[in-house]
Each structure stands twice: as C-alpha cells, then as structure tokens.
Specification:
The complex is a heterodimer of chains A (253) and B (218). Chain A is 70% helix and 4% strand. With 253 residues, chain A is mainly alpha-helical. The chains are: A mainly alpha (253), B alpha/beta (218).
Chain lengths: 253, 218
C-alpha cells in the first residue's frame, strides 16, 4: 500500500520544514473557509495553482486526485440550484433557483483552492514527518499518538485484510449479488475488526515490556532556517491580501 | 541469582480449561533454556505470566528475587528483561527503526545521545548498519525480526525471553541470529519448535506439555 505518492521529490516544498508548511496550510484553510467574496476566492485559487506549480508534482496522479475531489463537487452543482417548494396537501414542486449556482461556484473555488494548497504543501512531506511536526507544534500528545498508531497499523490491517481475502479466493469464492457473498464479506470485516483488537492489545503489552509509561519520545528535529522564515513572510502577506479582498477592499468587489 | 521464578502457578483463560496447575519455572543467571512443546501448550502464556502481562489465579511470581504482584512491581523489573514477541509487527510500533530501538532505552531514563549511541551499537551488532531511518512497515519479514530483537537488546537486559525467534527466517538470517546469541553473555529462555536450533543455542531443553515442564536430554 502506498499512500505517499507525492512525498518524494526535490522541489522547494519537499525540502521545507513541515512545521512551516503545516502552519501555512492551516492558516490558508481558515481564511479561505470564511471568505465569501468572489475576488478573494479567485485569488486563493490562483495562489493554490502557484503553490502546486512550485511543488513540481507528477501531472497524471495530480490530475487524478483533483478529479476525485471535483466529482464530489459536481454533485453540488446538480443539487444546489433546485429548491423544494411544498404546496398544500401532497403538492410539491422543484423550483429552479439561480442563487444555488452562485453558491456552488463559491464552494467549487474554495474546495479546489484548499485542496491544491494541501497537496502542494502537505503531501510533499512523508506522513510521519507531518505527525512529528504536529508534535513539535505542541498539538495534543494523545492526538498525535493516535495518528501515528493509526498510520502504522493501517498497513498491518491492510495486509491482514489481503491475506484473508486471498484465503477466501483460494477456496473458490466469487463475489456475486447473493446472500452468500454478503455473509462472507461480513465475516471478513468482522475478522479484521477482531484481529485489530487483539493486535492493539499485544502492541500495548509489547510496549509495557519495554517500560512504556505514557511518554512518547521525539528523536528527530526539524530545521527552521531563513528559507522557512522567508516563506512564512511571503505566504503571510498573500494571506493578508486574501483577507483584504474578502473584506471588500479589492478593486473588483 | 534467580532472575525469574514461578512457584505453584495456576492459570486459566476465561471460560477455558486450565493451562497450568501448580506450575514451577525458574531461570537463573547463566541459564540458557529452550522450551519446546505442542501448539497451545501455554509456552507464550508462560512468558506472559513471568512478565506480569497475565495474572495467575494462584501462586507466586518472583523477578530478581522479589515477589511481584501489582503493575507497579512489574514495571521496574520488565525493563531488565528483554521479552521479544512472536510477531514483530506487535513489537515494532514506531515509524522508523531508530525510534523503535531507542524507545526502550529512553523509557529506562537514558538521555537522547546515549539512546542513539545504543541504537548504533545494537544495529551494528546485528549487521543492520544503515537501517536507522528505514520505515518499519516497509522492512522484509527477516529484517523485521532482527530489528525487533534489536529493540530488546538495546535495553541491555539481564535476560532474554524469545518467543519463536526463528519463525519465518531463512537459513542465513537464522545463522546471524545464532552468532549474535553465541557472542552474548546473557541468560535466556527461548521458545521454539526447532529442536536443533534449541540444541545449538541452549544448555537445557524443557518440554511443556499438559501444563507441566519436564527436562529432556539436550
């Protein structure tokens, strides 16, 4: 299982301290999330595109990822412009409301801008580095541990799931639309769940045997240099621009 | 000195027939015990009782000459024993090899520099130089087993408890494990189904069957 498609590369963002990138991405998401003016949202999208270009990611997987996101957004375009109007009794009708289109457009811009920034800034670091960066940024310790364990054992559970599904295939199981199939999948899911519970128990015991007392140790340290400071200043200025635009200070609002 | 002593231990998993009734077991410094026995005889259960991970229904557990009852009693004794679990995936929970091997020493109260030095030494001893920053879940089965052994060796324990250390190892890696053991001066108890491996690494072999330990000719 490979979840870190974009984590290895040579761009500026691949080399940057993940703490700077985490802070930037979080601030950007909040600002864009509460912005409402179209000018601010277009500017946010432009910033997203700039960051993506700077990250120098392989094009095809990138497009696939953006496609997956926009598939969800497409449903909003289908649903939002329609309003349900209830008459008396059982009378009801769907009414076309163009205000829904404007809303869908804003959501599309926001979603794409945020996703682009997240891909450009966060997926350019290995996931474990992001968790460590969170720990260094004083995120709640329990939360960070939860993420770390989740990611570590996701791989193990994935492998266990595969072993089980191979085992049922090896005995001639072919999925079809029948009760036997559903029952088999239910057993499979149940088995993975039970196994993960047992696994959690054993991992905890193994940790106890090495003297675990609740402390999670951090060994790696990141390096905050002038590059990170410069990036923070430039990105901060861009965010200030977005805020100004969303407050209506821009020329086109 | 007696490192581990179980005296008159009764144990049963809930709702199942008893595993042990009046079991006695002892590991003294200098001992090298091999434990063999059929599946489900309670070999791993024996280690877990000794480490205080399971609580006996009756009987005494002594570690380093003191009776241990509560979690707190066991905590200080556990870090002096190196218990290596049967499945390396249970043992290796950190993202990188370095973090996992350093985990035990750091829990023992060693400083970061000292812990990292121990990581280097232990990995070198097992022929795993350059593995520090490898990601644990991308290691092969044999590598994972050696690294999980490194995680307990780095704690500089007084005795090793190894549960099926050769399972899934190719002959070459098994040889490496044997070399590491033969160069060490530790005491140990090893669970294995591989009688010849036990004969090469242990001085006494015990068979666990029907809840009893019997010495067999090595």
């Amino acid at each position: 299982m490979h979840l870190e498609t974009f984590a290895h590369g040579h761009s500026l963002f691949h080399r940057m301290d993940p703490r700077a990138k985490l802070l930037a991405a979080a601030a950007f998401s909040i600002v864009v999330g509460v912005s409402t003016t179209l000018s601010a949202l277009w500017a946010a999208l432009a910033l997203g595109i700039v960051v993506l270009l700077a990250a120098q990611l392989p094009l095809l997987p990138l497009l696939k990822r953006l496609w997956a996101v926009n598939l969800f957004v497409a449903f909003l375009w289908l649903v939002l412009p329609w309003r349900l109007e209830l008459g008396q009794g059982w009378n009801w009708s769907l009414v076309w409301d163009p205000r829904g289109l404007a809303l869908a457009a804003r959501i599309t811009l926001k979603t794409n801008a945020i996703v682009m920034i997240l891909i450009g800034l966060l997926s350019t670091s290995p996931i474990n580095n992001l968790f460590h960066a969170l720990a260094h940024l004083r995120a709640p310790e329990k939360l960070v541990q939860l993420f770390l364990f989740f990611y570590r054992y996701l791989h193990v559970l994935h492998r266990e799931y595969h072993k089980l599904s191979w085992a049922i295939k090896a005995r001639g199981f072919q999925p079809a639309n029948n009760l036997h199939t559903y029952r088999t999948y239910a057993h499979l899911a149940g088995m993975v769940l039970v196994k993960s519970y047992d696994r959690a128990e054993r991992v905890y015991q193994a940790m106890l045997c090495r003297g675990f007392d609740g402390t999670y140790w951090l060994l790696d340290h990141f390096h905050w240099s002038r590059r990170e400071s410069l990036f923070s200043i430039i990105f901060g200025a861009a965010l200030a621009g977005l805020i100004a635009l969303s407050l209506g200070a821009g020329p086109w609002s | 000195m007696e490192l581990i002593k179980l005296k008159g231990v009764d144990f049963a998993y809930e709702g199942r027939p008893p595993v042990f009734q009046g079991l006695d077991f002892s590991l003294s410094s200098g001992n090298r015990l091999g434990i063999i026995g059929p599946n489900g005889a309670g070999k791993s259960t024996l280690f877990m009782l000794a480490m205080g991970l399971l609580t006996p229904n009756k009987g005494r557990v002594e570690l380093f000459g003191e009776e241990r009852k509560s979690e707190k009693d066991f905590h200080s004794a556990r870090v002096r024993l190196g218990y290596c679990f049967q499945d390396p995936d249970d043992q290796l929970f950190s993202a990188t090899v370095k973090e996992d091997v350093a985990f035990g020493p750091l829990n023992q109260g060693k400083g970061k520099q000292e812990a990292l030095l121990l990581v280097d030494q232990t990995l070198a001893r097992l022929g795993l130089q350059g593995f520090e920053d490898r990601v644990t879940y991308h290691l092969s089965g044999g590598e994972r087993r050696l690294v999980s052994l490194a995680t307990v060796l780095a704690m500089q324990p007084e005795a090793l408890l190894l549960d099926e250390p050769t399972a899934g190892l190719d002959t070459e890696t098994e040889k490496r494990l044997e070399e590491v053991l033969s160069q060490s001066s530790l005491s140990w108890a090893i669970i294995s189904h591989d009688r010849s491996f036990l004969e090469r690494t242990c001085t006494r072999i015990l068979r666990l069957q029907d809840g009893r330990l019997r010495e067999i000719e090595a």
